[in-house]
Amino acid sequence: xxxxxxxxxxxxxxxxxxxxxxxxxxxxxxxxxxxxxxxxxxxxxxxxxxxxxxxxxxxxxxxxxxxxxxxxxxxxxxxxxxxxxxxxxxxxxxxxxxxxxxxxxxxxxxxxxxxxxxxxxxxxxxxxxxxxxxxxxxxxxxxxxxxxxxxxxxxxxxxxxxxxxxxxxxxxxxxxxxxxxxxxxxxxxxxxxxxxxxxxxxxxxxxxxxxxxxxxxxxxxxxxxxxxxxxxxxxxxxxxxxxxxxxxxxxxxxxxxxxxxxxxxxxxxxxxxxxxxxxxxxxxxxxxxxxxxxxxxxxxxxxxxxxxxxxxxxxxxxxxxxxxxxxxxxxxxxxxxxxxxxxxxxxxxxxxxxxxxxxxxxxxxxxxxxxxxxxxxxxxxxxxxxxxxxxxxxxxxxxxxxxxxxxxxxxxxxxx
Length: 416
Ligand code: UD1
What we know:
Layout lengths: L3 E4 L5 E5 L4 H10 L6 E5 L5 H13 L2 E5 L2 E5 L10 H6 L6 H9 L1 E5 L12 H9 L3 E5 L2 E5 L8 E3 L5 H11 L5 E5 L5 H12 L3 E3 L5 E5 L7 E4 L4 H13 L3 E5 L7 H9 L3 E5 L2 E5 L4 E2 L4 E2 L11 H8 L2 E2 L1 E5 L10 H5 L4 E5 L2 E5 L8 E3 L3 H13 L3 E5 L2 H4 L5 H7 L3 E3 L1
Parallel strand pairs: 2-14, 3-13, 9-10, 17-19, 18-20, 23-24
Antiparallel strand pairs: 1-24, 1-25, 3-5, 4-5, 6-8, 7-8, 10-12, 11-12, 14-16, 15-16, 20-22, 21-22
Helix pairs in contact: 1-2, 1-7, 4-6, 5-6, 8-10, 8-12, 10-12
The structure holds uridine-diphosphate-N-acetylglucosamine.
């Protein structure tokens, strides 16, 4: 089993280019199903979740070609509308294929994604929205059988929570539906706008993405297109925290600072110097990190839940006590017990984590419990005295394109 071994204590310095966003590339690869022509997706990170998406596409009958950071998908010969259970299990976000498959074939069969690493993750909002668009859904023996027998028809949909995945599924199902769809209380994450930009470049008519009302005028057909994935704001925050906790000086290239306003503000509060120029962020952290005012995860443009574990890990070595409130997922603190093995002082109760900064972390053996929790362990390991061994790194490989190589470039003593 692969593991990551870190000898902590090196200050990080240098520069790296941030990878394309995992949460953009997955729905965009799903969206290629709707396009009757070659789609070239550039700036595609090398992730196990991307491998799974490609397997799903190939299973449906698409031809996929991967060359460096470009994936070319030809879905002209789609012949199937079912995602095998083992692929659904590997990646919960494969539920986003649902809207695209129905949009293209009028049918879909997937296994229920069920609960997972962050607690229960229901898809009721996805399903009720699809029903409004004319999909009949039968749930039987752990499978969802979806059928839009009379075709997909535009509808007005109000989400009770601005779910990212549900907003994406509606956009995908509605892009080629008959008539207009309006999504009220839509998710505003940059990855939603990236999906809309991709589809619009293929001929879709989607307006208002990035705001809480999205208008989708169904079109008859979508063509092939080319698109470059936006930079990953969560990965950027990970390398920033790694720089901060080690007293480093790191320049991140190819980022979109306007997507990171809430994140940058927390780094500034912690005493780091942040310089933003165009698509570059430089972070300098020389003195001891400071405690920060309460951080609350919220839907975009609030502080992203996915950066929570990363910031909590950084705050483990700050001066004073900070509080983090997790408002999006019910069970997101499983990695905290692993951080404690390195000497972190964190108490959790319900959705609240209280982080008491310590002067020193010490290397230990620990295990990733989930993707961002795994990244939190890497950050702590970089600052800990002695050796940290991190197991179950398959979680990290779902979302980080060669984290070990990037951190090595920045002077970390790290190996896989
Ligand atoms: C996406 C991101 C994930 C991020 C999350 C919140 C991808 C692949 N994943 O996940 O990294 O942490 O957004 O920014 O893009 N909910 C329901 N019913 C539903 C759907 C969601 O109750 O039908 C609840 C969820 O349980 C959760 C909350 O809504 O408590 C947010 O979920 P959602 O925004 O849908 O997240 P995902 O799309 O799963």
